[in-house]
């Protein structure tokens, strides 16, 4: 890096690390680049930023009177379960606590599961006919879509691909799209979204969670993503998986086989 600075003395050099759903060890343990540099955090929230979000969230909530207590809980939970302190993650806690003020996050998998259940099961009166398609069935469909992205090694669908997959999934399961609304409800709930002309998961964490959920129900897929050549690329998926299973003995045995 020092040599690059000498040869490009008029250039500003910027090294970036993307911090998503999980706190990045790379950010916590920045390597020695051989020269001085300044760290700048974008979308990383300290206690003052968290306090601003909490203040807006508790407005009108008589059941919450101690802002500092909520801020300290969020900060502590993020540190304990390795959550990145981003606006998206902070809002997950708030959404869950709106429904269950006693919820205590145990791991990232449980937090995401609780959040998605709130998002996918919060039905308006006009959606009441959908309740026969439970949260478990909705998750199953989304994990199927995530795995299809994995199989083609492209984490998006065009409209034709998406419609074909939804149709074939319903035929295989004996469901009716007119009843499940799986072709539209995931967009309404902002789990899936449009990026230009493609359909993607609206947040990388959703994709990783649903891949982990697929692995819970598919040992062959779990073996694939935990194999020596791939596990480094699926570390977040493996973290979600470990939080979704009661026993991780087999997983730990596989990972210890280096």
3D architecture notes:
The protein is mainly alpha-helical. The protein is built from 14 helices and two strands; from the N terminus they run H-H-H-H-H-H-H-H-H-H-E-E-H-H-H-H. The protein has a two-stranded antiparallel sheet. Helix 6 crosses helix 13. The chain is globular, with a radius of gyration of 21 Å.
Describe the SSE topology.
Blueprint (H helix, E strand, L loop, with lengths): L1 H6 L17 H4 L18 H11 L9 H15 L5 H13 L8 H14 L13 H18 L6 H15 L3 H4 L4 H4 L3 E4 L2 E4 L2 H13 L2 H7 L9 H10 L4 H8 L2
Antiparallel strand pairs: 1-2
- Can you list the strand order of the major beta sheet? 1-2
Number of helices: 14
Number of strands: 2
User: What is the CA-CA span between the terminal residues?
Assistant: 32 Å
Mean pLDDT: 81
Shape call = globular
Helix content: 55-70%
Radius of gyration: 21 Å
Pick out the low-confidence regions: 21-28
Can you write the helix and strand succession as a string?
HHHHHHHHHHEEHHHH
Q: What structural category arises from helix and sheet content? A: mainly alpha
- Percent of residues in β-strands: under 5%
Q: Could you give a short account of the major beta sheet?
A: 2 strands, antiparallel
């Amino acid at each position: 890096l020092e040599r690059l600075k000498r040869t490009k003395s008029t250039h500003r050099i910027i090294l970036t690390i993307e911090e998503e759903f999980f706190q990045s060890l790379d950010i916590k343990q920045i390597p020695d680049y051989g020269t001085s540099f300044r760290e700048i955090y974008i979308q990383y929230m300290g206690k003052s930023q968290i306090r601003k979000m909490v203040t807006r969230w508790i407005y009108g909530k008589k059941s919450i009177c101690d802002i500092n207590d909520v801020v300290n809980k969020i900060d502590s939970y993020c540190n304990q379960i390795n959550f990145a302190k981003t606006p998206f993650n902070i809002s997950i806690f708030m959404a869950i606590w709106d429904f269950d003020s006693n919820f205590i996050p145990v791991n990232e998998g449980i937090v995401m599961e609780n959040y998605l259940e709130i998002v996918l099961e919060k039905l308006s009166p006009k959606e009441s006919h959908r309740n026969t398609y439970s949260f478990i069935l909705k998750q199953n469909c989304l994990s199927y879509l995530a795995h299809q992205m994995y199989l083609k090694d492209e984490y998006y669908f065009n409209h034709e691909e998406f419609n074909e997959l939804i149709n074939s999934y319903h035929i295989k399961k004996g469901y009716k799209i007119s009843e499940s609304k799986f072709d539209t409800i995931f967009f309404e709930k902002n789990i899936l979204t449009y990026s230009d002309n493609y359909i993607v998961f609206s947040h990388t964490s959703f994709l990783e969670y649903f891949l982990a959920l697929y692995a819970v129900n598919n040992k062959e897929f779990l073996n694939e993503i935990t194999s020596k050549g791939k596990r480094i690329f699926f570390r977040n998926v493996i973290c979600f998986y470990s939080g979704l299973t009661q026993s991780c003995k087999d997983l730990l045995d596989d990972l210890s086989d280096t």
